[in-house]
Amino acid sequence: MELDRHGAELLFQVLTEREEKASAAIASNESFGWTETFIDPRLCAAIVDRLTFGGAIIETGIDSYRLAQSRARAEQHTTA
């Protein structure tokens, strides 16, 4: 998924305003190299910095159940 510059700036603003006021939880199947999602590398680095500063990163090491289910359905359709 790609987020344009305006959308990324709005997300950064929300994260900045929530900082030290409330928690934020983010789930992703991707590592922190979100340059495909956030086109501007500097803005991407700033968002990752906001998310990780003082936070807890939990890596489950488990593939997404939904992704595995979608791939299985796609495979069934191509072999049928």
TrEMBL record:
<dbReference type="InterPro" id="IPR027417">
    <property type="entry name" value="P-loop_NTPase"/>
</dbReference>
<protein>
    <submittedName>
        <fullName>IstB-like ATP binding protein</fullName>
    </submittedName>
</protein>
<dbReference type="Pfam" id="PF01695">
    <property type="entry name" value="IstB_IS21"/>
</dbReference>
<dbReference type="InterPro" id="IPR002611">
    <property type="entry name" value="IstB_ATP-bd"/>
</dbReference>
<dbReference type="GO" id="GO:0005524">
    <property type="term" value="F:ATP binding"/>
</dbReference>
<feature type="domain" description="IstB-like ATP-binding">
    <location>
        <begin position="2"/>
        <end position="71"/>
    </location>
</feature>
